Amino acid sequence: MNLKYKRRYESLKRSVKSYLLENASLTDEICRLQAELSVTRSQRLYLIERLMFHEGLEKSSNGRASVSNGKVEPSESPLGGVKKNKPVAVHKKPNEEKPKNVTIVRKKKPMFPMNLNNVLLHSLGEIISVNQNFHTESWIYPVGYVATRIYAHPKDPRKKCVFTCKILNNAGIPQFQIIPDNDLDGVFFGESANTCHMELLNSIQRSPSVKVKIPFDVQGEVFFGLSNQKTQSLLMMDPGFQHCTNFKGFAVQNVQSLNSASLSFETLQGFLS
Asked: Fewest CB atoms within 10 Å of the CB: 98, 133, 180, 270?
């Protein structure tokens, strides 16, 4: 009997030793992946900041034919030459007057991503005018809207974090999402932009590193970038804009509110220091 239990004891010792070695190797692999993930996140944050800075510059339309005074200007060919337009014969009536000079203005197609100072707009989305849940008297919520901005990390407010703001269609009801950088477990979502923004601010306030009461003011639409004049101008160009029956006019944006602790990372650091 003693020999039997001794063999079992030795087998258990070998199993425990094997599990300890396996656990140690898994721990080392997790530490290595976390280090790589941290470096990748810092690089992504740096690239987002650079992109937000450079995308604000207007891009020139080189290589395209421009229209001025009703005439098409010659454009350069890919080989460096100039393409000549073939003359077109125009038959005039005897008593027809000479037309006046007319300047044709082309509407430039917006290029994304678009830098809106503190927000980077990736997709404007589409206005659903037939559903009154997607617009109010002061705001329009286009489905498919995607924007990113930099703010404090909800778990460590002293660090910067890239947030992705989305507006989705959840069975006829708008769903707003604020997604921290590579943190799918910490997504803030709700049926209004203010709900998402309030949950984010509450998470920051509950952070162990925050020792004081921060005077947060909930500004969900501003955080999403919907109050920006460029965003509103693009929404006015959408075919469904004229059919939003409840909409009366965009709310006036308070410029000073952009520097509040609920929107500005730098202002928030002043309360944390």
From this structure: 98
Kindly write down the DSSP assignment for every residue of the chain, as one continuous string: -HHHHHHHHHHHHHHHHHHHHHHHHHHHHHHHHHHHHHHHHHHHHHHHHHHHHHTTSPPP-TTS--EETTEEPP-B-TTS-BPPPPP---PPPTTPPPPPP----PPPPP-SSEE-SSEEEEE--B--TT-GGGB-SS-B--BTEEEEEEEE-SS-TTSEEEEEEEEEEETTEEEEEEE-TT-GGG-EEESSHHHHHHHHHHHHHTSTT--S-------HHHHHTTTSHHHHHHHHTSTTGGG-SS---PPPP-GGGGGSTTT-HHHHHHHH-
Residue 173 identity = I
Peptide bond between residue 174 and the one before it cis (omega within 30 degrees of 0):
no
Amino acid identity at 18: S
- Enter the tokens of residue 5: 């239990």
Q: What is this structure's pTM?
A: 0.61
Q: Which amino acid is at 11?
A: S
pLDDT tens digits for 82-107? 444 444 444 444 454 544 454 444 55
Distance, in Å, from the CA atom of 80 to the CA atom of 60, rounded to the nearest integer, reads 17
